[in-house]
Amino acid sequence: MMHGPSSHAVPVMAKCINTHERSIPMKLVIRSAVFSLFLLSLLALPSQGANLSASLKKGSADLKSAGSLAFGPEGILFVADTLQASVFAIATEDTTPAQDTGAFKVEAVNEKVAAALGTQAQQILINDLAVNPISRAAYLSVSRGQGPDAIPVLVRVNTAGDVKVISLDGVRFAKAALPNAPENRAEGRRGNPRMESITDLAFEDGRVLVAGLSNEEFASSLRSIPFPFSTVDAGASIEIFHGAHGRLETASPVRTFVPYKIEGESHLLAAYTCTPLVSFPTSALKPGAHVKGKTVAELGNRNRPLDMIVYQKGGKDYLLLANNSRGIMKITTDALSGIEAIVEPVRGGGTKGISFETIADWKGITQLDRFDTKHALVLRTSDSGSMSLEALELP
Amino acid sequence: MIRGSVIPACAVAITFGLAFGCGGNIQLFAAAPLSDAANQPSELGDPTSIIRLAPDSDRPGGRVFEVSGVVAQAGAPFSAEQLKGIDWSRIFAVYVASSSLSERQDLPPIAGSYLFEAGILKFKPRFPVEKGVRYRAVFFPKRARFPNGDGQDKNEENPSGNSEESITAEFLTPLPPSVRSAFVENVFPTVDVLPENQLKFYLYFSAPMSRGQGYTHIHLFGEDGKSVDLPFLEIDEELWDPKGTRLTLFFDPGRIKRGVRPREELGPTLRVGERYTFVIDSNWQDANGNPLIREYRKVFRVGEADYDSPSPKDWKLELPAEETQEPLVVRFNESLDIALASRLIWVETSDNQYLSGSIDIADGERQWRFVPTRNWTPGDYHLIVGTVLEDLAGNSVARPFEVDAFPPVQQRIEQETVSRSFQISGRNNR
Predict the structure, then answer these.
(1) What totals of helices (H) and strands (E) does chain A contain, helices first?
(2) Which residues of chain B lie closer than 8 angstroms to A274, CB-CB?
(3) Smallest CA–CA separation between B248 and chain A, in Å?
(4) Are residues B66 and B202 in the same domain?
(5) Domains contained in chain B, number
(6) Which of A164, A235, A334, B40 pairs as cysteine with A223 (C-beta 3.0–4.6 A)?
(7) Are residues B326 and B299 located together in one domain of the fold?
(8) B330 in the same domain as B256
(9) Which residues of B fall within a CB distance of 8 Å from A217?
(10) pLDDT in tens, chain B (430 residues)
(11) B126-139: burial string, b at 16+ Cβ within 10 Å, e else
């Protein structure tokens, strides 16, 4: 999360210059021009911290579904609404800093959330988890009901296990509609059945990054949407190719991704549905671009990625990746900058690229997010179907 | 903690008090339909005469939990501001009484808002009251006395150290009998022989289905009757259409793409020459929680992998006669993706106007038929094809599923559509 200089300061200083412009000598004019350029450069920075919340307008956030979640600055929660092909930015107003305890354990969280929603655990789906980096409260996106008419709900769970349903009425929010699929003009009785599921969200450097997976064509889209949201331009769709070893390239859906800096440059580490872990510079995300990723690791069979976070320990960066065999992989990233892309097929069960280990005692993890510098918050499912939210020390 | 909201217009409260005495903990389990519980005769001491589940006058079909018998006593009316300050959930709260997973005691009250008018305290659940869920409504009479009329509870909650007096009523509307009505209408592609690198299935249901359980009810068996291990891409989002009647099921792309580790280690999911049975079991629940009428089975054989893009220039067009509504028939030289073929092929007139009509995909997804809304008129037309259109193996018109990164460069088309021109004239004979 990057905070740019406060844009509030900019007009104040600009006004100062204007009040003197009639009497200033040439040298000062030049200085002023240079200073103005400096100010313009500040305005051009994508992240304008103090203005982010102000860009949200009060009203009813009309979510039709609630999927992937990501926090931005100032307690702003980004929510993916697949049914509306939209991303919502909602001001949670949850901006009281947490005390640094590192403790968080809430048993049977699915039953508690269901109870608060007036129903039973088997009637809800917990779709994603995000930790508010300021308050360290857990936010869950939930479907109440399991059919297409399920009610989307956001809930906040604190360390005491209190479940609070987030009101979507009278909240400050903004909505960005993603570019829609071509219209199905020869509409049949089913209407247009195409949807693009938003499989992951992240906020970085004043942009919301959105990974999508269509339920028809097999293609990856990764959109970069400037925030605060502008009115029309909802970002560009970008196809990602990863060098699939040797001669073949394939467009492939990204399952989950995480922003990460390699030698000071913003990159995305993206885990694909077919299990390669691919790195590419965020600057390559330009409208209409065909971005070629660098395959840096192969996760292998049964390691289909679900969620990832980046953290530091002992001065080194690590990547933690949950996968659908419900294991957790810890991946060393310090070699990412120098590593050569994998360009040969990986045969015989060998591993190539950056090294990783499986964390044996983190079982049943389906969601994870950073909790603090030393802990991850995980959603863990037991064999009985009961789910718990736990802060676990980062391995 | 759920804080109630109070409608300021109802400045009718004077002082909370009870016109009757009753105590103890759970008084009654009213295992009766909500309507019966709501119509209980009012008798002092009967919890269901004090706590009722009543229709919500603001929401058709909605229900509210009410505490009645809370009568006005002498004293000045509360101001709206004072009413706002009351934590109503401490006085009256409604809980889900049980979960099928466990009998937990630490479940929070259900979310909702409070309204106090005409001596009746109403709790309006934020979400609809569900059939088959047992609700426990608990009212604490002592907490509802505000003798000073200042909106603050001056009573000690539990001065004696004994359990505090409460009135509890439980409500349950039984689920209607399970009625199986939904079934699998079809699974596409319908053709009997699929390429080794078959990319996806579309599962069409007759009614909206439940989410979150699909993959447990989908099975693929080999010739030996053994279940194929993890053949499909399982993602939490489940790729449904908006109506919940079509699920897109991708085969595991890691077992299709050449050179990635899952395929290198285990080989492709489908093997050339073998026969497979795809089964959807009947335990899959529709959106109402009812299982399917019957299981679905589809048997198919596996042919050679397909690495080539569909080629619209090689399709055969069968032209209709002018001044008729005969179909324009396009015969592909392979089966195509039914969803994309339905959406990405259309007809335009010579001046690029979209021609309305109905589309039908037939013959194992090898044939596209178009019947115009009005008779064909003589002239030039264009058959437009979106280059995103894929065959069964995910090769699109624009590019194959896997592109050879080095020469020889394979066909890659950058534009969004390609077209074929045709002419309708009196000479067309089908």
Answers:
(1) 3, 26
(2) 252-254, 256-257, 260, 262
(3) 6
(4) no
(5) 3
(6) A235
(7) no
(8) no
(9) 340, 388, 390, 396
(10) 233 332 222 222 222 223 222 333 222 233 333 334 333 433 335 676 789 999 998 888 899 999 886 644 333 445 556 666 778 888 899 999 865 445 667 889 999 998 887 778 899 999 999 998 999 999 887 777 654 444 444 444 444 445 578 889 999 988 888 899 999 999 999 999 999 999 999 999 999 999 988 899 999 999 999 999 889 988 888 899 999 999 999 998 888 877 777 777 788 889 999 999 999 999 999 999 999 999 999 999 999 999 999 999 999 999 999 999 999 999 999 999 999 999 999 999 999 999 999 999 999 999 999 999 999 999 999 999 999 999 999 999 988 887 765 545 555 677 889 999 999 986 544 4
(11) bbbbbeebbbbbbb
Answer whether residue B319 is part of any domain: yes
Within 8 A of A117 by CB-CB distance, chain B residues are 110-111, 126-127
Question: How far apart are alpha carbons B169 and B26 in whole angstroms?
Answer: 7
Q: What is the C-alpha R_g of chain B?
A: 33
Residue B116 lies in a domain: yes
Return the structure tokens found at A34: 């240079």
* CB-based contact B371:B364 (threshold 8 Å): no
| Among the partner residues B96, B208, B340, nearest to A147 by beta-carbon distance | B208
* Cβ contact, residue pair A273, B246, below 8 Å: no
Contacts of A213 in chain B (CB under 8 A): 235, 237, 239
Give strand pairing partners of B138: B93, B168
Same-domain check for residues B126 and B151: yes
Dist. CA B332–CA B385, nearest whole Å: 12
Judge whether A292 lies within some domain: no
Average pLDDT over residues A12-27: 29
The band of A48, judged by pLDDT with boundaries at 50, 70 and 90, is very low
Nearest residue in B to A116, CA atom: B110
Provide the domain limits for residue A33.
8-17+26-45
A37 lies in some domain: yes
Residue B242, in any domain of the structure:
yes
B263 lies in the same domain as B332: no
Would you state the structure tokens that stand for residue A269, as one six-digit string? 């580490």
- To the nearest whole Å, the CA of B70 is away from the closest chain A CA by 25
The answer to whether position A283 is within a domain reads no
Identify which of A67, A163, A250 has the shortest CB distance to residue B257.
A250
| Minimal C-alpha gap between A294 and chain B (Å) | 14
How confident is the model at residue A157, as a pLDDT?
96
Distance CA B247, CA B187 (A): 10
What local confidence, expressed as pLDDT, does residue A249 receive?
64
Q: For residue B48, what are its two tokens? A: 């269901």
Asked whether the beta carbons of residue A186 and residue B390 sit closer than 8 angstroms, the reply is no
What is the structure's pLDDT at B45?
Answer: 53
A232-243 pLDDT, tens digit each: 455 566 777 766
Contact A248 B257 (CB under 8 A): yes
pLDDT at A137 over 80: yes
Nearest-CB residue to B262 (from A115, A184, A275): A275
Chain A: give the shortest CA distance to residue B99, in Å.
6
| pLDDT for the residue numbered B334 | 97
Using the beta-carbon criterion (under 8 Å), do A118 and B253 form an inter-chain contact?
Answer: no
Say which CATH number the domain at B290 has. Answer: 2.60.40.1220
Instruction: For residue B299, give its domain range.
Output: 184-303
Residues of A in contact with B129 (CB under 8 A): 118
Strand B379-386 and strand A57-59: pairing?
Answer: unpaired
Indicate the number of domains in chain A.
1
Nearest to A117 by CA among B94, B164, B141: B94
Q: Are residues B143 and B252 in the same domain?
A: no
d(CA B134, CA B282): 28
- Ramachandran class of B283: left when φ > 0, alpha when ψ lies in -120 to 50, beta otherwise: alpha
Token pair listed for B336: 């195509």
Q: Which amino acid is at B41?
A: P
On whether both B136 and B89 belong to a single domain, the answer is yes
Question: Is residue B12 in a domain?
Answer: no
Asked whether the beta carbons of residue A249 and residue B111 sit closer than 8 angstroms, the reply is no
